Write the structure tokens for this entry.
Amino acid sequence: MRVVLVTVTVLAVLAGSWLMNQRQTEEAEAGEISQVEVAGAAPAPQIGEAAPDFTAVGIDGEEVRLSEIEGETWIVFMATWCAQCRVEAPDVEAAHAEGDGVTVIAVYVGEDADTVDAYAERLGLTFHQIPDADNDIARAYGAGAIPHHFFLDADGIVRDVRFGALGPRQIDEALATTR
């Protein structure tokens, strides 16, 4: 009797976990977002405005200065705990791997380098990974929700802004606005 009770309990926990994961995946695919608290956030740059410049050190130790990037840029604000961010990560990586001259920068709101490094390693992410532990970049971009995407043309002008997890079709549409 005890074995049956333990088995039923384990199955119930596994089923519950699976259902929660399915719900998170469906929310992400529907473009839902997670709210983040960024004290003192500026208004987000709008389409047609220059993106705020920043300099940051990625998890690889390399300095990234937005104003020195040549070509189009895609900045995505995310977090390692964000289910929607996790769902879209393979599609962001795939777009980066295509190498269409677009520089992809992920900014991790409120997270430190060790946390971001472990996450990027686990997911096999090869684009720029920028920890933003003090929320300096998130504050400049008014990032109060994640995932939050800014697509910039070669002159650093915002050409598209999107919220929520993006799939391949939405990524292609947004990237087309930068050219």
